[in-house]
Amino acid sequence: MKRKNALITGASRGIGLAIASCLKKQGINILAPDRKKLNLLCEDSINNYLASLKCPIDILVNNAGINILGSIENLTEQSINETMQVNLLAPLRIIRKIAPQMIGRKYGRIVNIGSIWGIVTKPGRITYTLTKSGLGGLTRSMAVELAPHSVLVNCVAPGYVNTEMTKANNTKKELEKIKNTIPMQRLCEPSEVAELVSFLCSDKNTYITGQIIAIDGGYLCV
Q1: The overall pTM is greater than 0.90
Q2: What does the alpha-carbon distance between residue 14 and residue 34 come to, in Å, rounded to a whole number?
């Protein structure tokens, strides 16, 4: 069997790094461009990077994301535009470029990394919730459109994950309180998200598409 190629955005740390490591162990060739190679804030950078690819993409994981906290009173145009671009428009543009290849080969796996904050929300996450909700809509729309071509599209929505972003947005005291609101009484590890993504990207997944799958330790149940 030919070696599959996976393009993963935001794979330098956290969930993205765990996904890259998990897929690499399965013998998948990993393309994990840094910001110099692929600047998601710049449409030209996206187009130029995708045009430079020398191999077909079998697996796409849109993982990169930013979470700029702010209430409606202190949102800036820059924070709105950057969050929209990185979290929603960049994944759309990457899928638009890569999907035709997958259609032509009658094979593809696309996983968008969303968030439970695309399903529920809390104060200060207006643009984050907006974009992650939109990513869920993009997932469903693309799943319907690409299903006849054997291309499966899903969205994984992590809850509180033990990453730098989570620690940056919450103090140690706040994290301890958060753990008490999660039925499993702990944060999710990046490797646990990676295992779920790995299954959705694998040939073992033959029928799951268009789904938003929360991995949150039961947080959304309470």
Answers
A1: yes
A2: 14
